[in-house]
Amino acid sequence: MIKDIITYPIPPSVQYSTDVRVFNEEIFSLIQDMKDTIEANSLDGLTAFQIGSYYNIVVVKKDESSLVEGDGFLELINPRLLNTNGKVTTREKTAYFPGLSAEVTRYESISLIYQDREGTQHSMKADGDLSILLQRKIDYTFGSSFINKLSKEEKKLFEKKLEFGSDIAISESCPTIFKRDYIVKLINALMIAMIVLLFTSLFTSQESAKTLWDYQVYLSLSVIGLNILYFFYAQYEGKQFTSCTSCQIGNIIGTTAISLIYLFVIMLLSYFII
C-alpha cells in the first residue's frame, strides 16, 4: 500500500529507531508498503520513519546492473554502521525536504551489518551512490537528517531555502541597483526632452510646431516601447532575487504606471499647445 511520506517540519526522533525483534507479517507488510511508496514516488529508498513507522528498517532500490534475483530491492532490518572510510562532498536531495538540496560531506565507503526478514544477520560494504544513500537513510533511524551534517555556511544557506521553499540560493538582501534602472533613466531622459520640446513650441511658428509635434510622437512611441521592455525585463531580473520578489513586483508595476501617466499628461498638453 502506498503511504504518505513524512516531510519537514515533522522532526525525526530516536523513538523511530526501535529495533525489530519479531519478524512477522506486520513487518513484512510494512516493508511492502515501503516498496510501494518508493515505486509510486520514483525514489531510491526509504526508512520506515518516512512513512510513519517506529521500526528500524531501511529499503533501497538495487542497482540495475546488480539485479540477479528478487524484486529489485535491498531490505535492511536493524542496520548498523561498523566501519567508515574516506570523505566525499556531494549534493543531496531527500523526500524529507521535498524540492531542496544541500552539499553534504559523507563517508566515501562504509561497511555495515543488518538482518533480513528471517532474522539472519548479514554484513555488506558500500561505496559511491549506495554508500551516500544508506548513510542518509540510517541518519533517520538515529533521529537525524542531513541538516545536522552541514557546514556552518551550508546550514545557514539551507535554512534560508527552508524559509522560502526554494532551492535557489537566496541573496542576503535585495540589491540597491538593478540593470533595469538604466532603462528607467533613459525613459526619464526622453520625457525630459519631450517637456523641452513642449516649452520650445511656445516660441516657434506654427510650421515649426508641426515638426515639433512629429518629434513628440516619435519620442512618445519610444517611451512606450521602453516601458514594455522595462516591464518584462524587470520581472526576469527580479526572479534572480527570490528573497524580495513580492516587493519588486509592486515596484515594477508602480514604476511602469507612473511613467505612462507622465507620458499621457505630456502628450495631452502637447496636443493642445502645439
What does this structure look like?
- The chain is an alpha+beta fold and 274 residues long.
- The chain has two domains: 14-164, Peptide Deformylase; 180-273.
- 46% of the residues lie in helices and 19% in strands.
- It has helices at residues 25-40, 128-141, 152-164, 180-200, 206-238, 245-273; strands spanning 45-47, 57-61, 73-93, 101-115, 121-127.
- It has a five-stranded antiparallel sheet with strand order 1-2-3-4-5, sandwiched between helices.
- Helix 5 (206-238) packs antiparallel against helix 6.
- The longest helix has 33 residues, at 206-238.
- The protein is rod-shaped and about 105 Å long.
Strands ordered across the widest β-sheet: 1-2-3-4-5
CATH homologous superfamily classification of the largest domain: Peptide deformylase
- Low-pLDDT segments, ≥5 res: none
Number of DSSP strand runs: 5
Separation, N- and C-terminal Cα atoms: 79 Å
Per DSSP, the total helix count is 6
- Rg over CA atoms, rounded to whole Å, is 32 Å
> Which structural class do you get from the secondary structure elements?
alpha+beta
